[in-house]
Design a protein that fits this description.
This protein has 264 residues and is α+β, with helices and mostly antiparallel strands. It is 27% helix and 27% strand. The chain has seven helices and twelve strands. α3 packs across α7 (210-219). The protein is globular.
């Protein structure tokens, strides 16, 4: 439970800080659900319009990239999914993950933190020892018919007020509260993310994936030495227009990484 009423995540409190025209103007908040993304996909299949946002105080089956579960304790963080119906072709949708990460970074930077984006879906903060710790993750899921996109669900999890993580996450995760040393209003953070996402997404619809790549690059932790799935190591130099990571190995060869787990 959230002790401070000002930290409650309610549709009214989010709406009071919302500056969007369509995104989040229909906002469902749930005390608990299995997955906000599953609910958003259900709404999409039932014909809901773009802009519906589903948020929950707790997820019992929250998921991240590569089949991982997402730590979702009750009343502490943001678990939210956005329903989109882009007109871009299916091949251009993957960079929406980069765009969502950039929206989170833009939203939280005014709080006094310095977000860094790790390709393709992590938002990180630097701790006192200089190590980057994961603050947020993005999972983008698409339903399509051939080249035509029927809907896209962008799931975003942000560690807002958690101060104690499971042992397997403690060394690599952080929260806004842990970084700032004070509680943070989840409704305000959600409104800020939606306010940042809508204009970026509208520009993406007009001009394509390059918009997402440029927004990501603004906060990207690049260049950066890394390895991919223990099969490739080198220096990540940047992101190509289609969202692929551009990595130079130690022999100087450039590789395009379309998918995989990027590690230090």
């Amino acid at each position: 439970m959230v002790a401070d009423p000002s930290l409650l995540l309610t549709a009214d409190r989010v709406a009071a800080a919302l500056g969007t025209r369509w995104l989040g103007r229909t906002l469902e908040t749930h005390a608990a659900c299995a997955s906000t993304s599953d609910l958003a996909a259900e709404r999409a299949r039932a014909g809901a319009p773009a802009g519906v946002v589903i948020a929950a105080d707790e997820q019992t089956a929250g998921r991240g990239r590569l089949g991982r579960s997402w730590h979702s304790p009750a009343g502490e963080n943001l678990y939210v999914s956005l329903l989109l119906r882009p007109a871009r072709p299916a091949a251009e949708i993957p960079p929406l993950t980069l765009l969502a990460g950039a929206a989170v970074a833009r939203a939280i930077a005014p709080l006094g933190v310095s977000p860094r984006l790790k390709w393709p879906n992590d938002v990180q903060l630097v701790d006192a020892a200089g190590a980057r710790r994961k603050l947020a993750g993005v999972l983008t899921e698409m339903a399509s018919a051939g080249a035509r996109v029927e809907h896209v669900v962008v799931g975003i999890g942000v560690n807002v007020n958690t101060t104690a993580f499971p042992e397997e996450l403690a060394a690599r995760a952080t929260s806004l509260r842990s970084t700032l040393g004070r509680p943070v209003d989840r409704a305000g953070v959600l409104a800020a993310i939606l306010n940042a996402f809508e204009p970026l997404y509208e520009d993406f619809e007009r001009r394509g994936p390059g918009v997402a790549v440029a927004a990501f690059t603004e906060f990207a932790a690049l260049p950066d030495r890394c390895r991919v799935d223990d099969r490739l190591s080198g220096v990540a130099l940047g992101v190509d227009p289609d969202g692929a990571l551009r990595l130079q190995d130690d022999a100087g060869q450039i590789h395009r990484v379309i998918s995989g787990e990027v590690q230090p």
